[in-house]
Design goal:
Length: 153
């Protein structure tokens, strides 16, 4: 069994780490949800199982459930506001040399990243345990699949 570290490396998909985005509830019914930063990380089966064995039950997609990879996926997120409504700071995003990246340095799908995280439990009746996003380090940045002057369809 893989040892569960607070830094996990994998393939990044649909990284929203510069600007907080609405969660599912907020998209469906504005004013009812939250905003968050998030990153989907495709990981090896052993890492995924280590999270499951530690009781994580939120943000977990078994292999084959995500259309963009055949690996299991863990969604790391950080809410834009804490439970009292106070704003949280966005997670730092840095390169391999630990230099901060800017919003222009978009993390393309399939890029290799390391995610620093911490466990968070919540829920009054149903208890959830989810990996919360602390920071992102880009190890290898994929090139954009479509250039800026090219039409994607």
């Amino acid at each position: 069994m893989a040892k569960l570290s607070n830094i996990i490396e994998g393939g990044s998909y649909f990284a929203k780490v510069y600007d907080a985005v609405p969660d599912y509830n907020e998209k469906q019914s504005p004013g009812s949800g939250k905003y968050q930063w998030e990153i989907n990380l495709a990981v090896d089966k052993e890492i995924f199982e280590a999270f499951e064995n530690e009781g994580f039950n939120a943000g977990m997609k078994e292999a084959g459930r995500a259309s963009y990879t055949d690996k299991p996926v863990i969604t790391f997120l950080k809410w834009a506001n804490d439970y009292k409504g106070n704003p949280n700071t966005n997670p730092p995003v840095m390169d391999i040399d630990k230099n901060l990246l800017s919003i222009e340095d978009r993390i393309e799908n399939g890029s290799t990243v390391r995610v620093q995280w911490k466990a968070y439990e919540y829920g009054k009746t149903t208890r959830y345990k989810r990996p919360m996003l602390v920071a992102v380090q880009v190890v290898e940045l994929n090139e954009p699949t479509v250039s800026e002057d090219e039409v994607a369809f």
